[in-house]
Fold this protein.
Amino acid sequence: MMDILVSLLIALIVGLGIGGGGFFVIYLTLCLNYPQLIAQGTNLTFFLISGISSLFVHVKRRRLFVKELIPIIAVSVPATILGSSLANNVDPKIPTMGLSVFLTINGIISLIKVIKKFKYSKK
Amino acid sequence: MDKKTENKPQGVKKFIYLVVLSFLAGCINGFVGTGGGILMVLLLFMLDGGGEKSTRDVFARTLVTVIPMTLTAFTVYLKSSNVDMAMISRLFVPISLGGALGAAFMDRIDTKWLNLIFSILVIYSGISMGVRVL
């Protein structure tokens, strides 16, 4: 039951554009003690499903200018193969540490942005 | 040249932004299993130059770029048996429902408070994760 509630909430957050599936890795590793790489792989699957279902809604409402995005996809997809192959072939502590640094920096940046938003809305 | 066009990076500058940020986004997404979207949001805002596309449009366009990356990384992790498919199949309905509902309510919800709570949670989780490894 807890898994269902947590996944629904995190997918909702993904759909709202607040953050990616990083939250699901956190849940799997810190709450369910999943091994890091399985948590990352499961999180990717989670994001794939929630992202595609969000995209179905967006396609109907927004102009996505997909053609402009093709060069970005052409560069990022091969880079993803490189990153994920590396993650699957090094000591799992390294991606864990990488994720820890990434989450902390990302959290601090988001926090600064949101504090600015609060300041703006008060003015 | 109007102001919107002025802010957009052009030519070589645009090419460098695109290649460097897309490459980094792909590497990070593959290596830590998340995070590519953040760099993509940054890149798409830069390429738009604060122009005609709204923040919500940029988020939607980010999904278009992140889904192929995620699909690619997923394939690599699956080949290495690093995906818990049993967990995912059990949670398929709430995940897809949550994603669609979030997108549907994106225009109606002020996400400031949620952003604040989750920023703090992310910082806490990042530090906890690091402490566990050390």
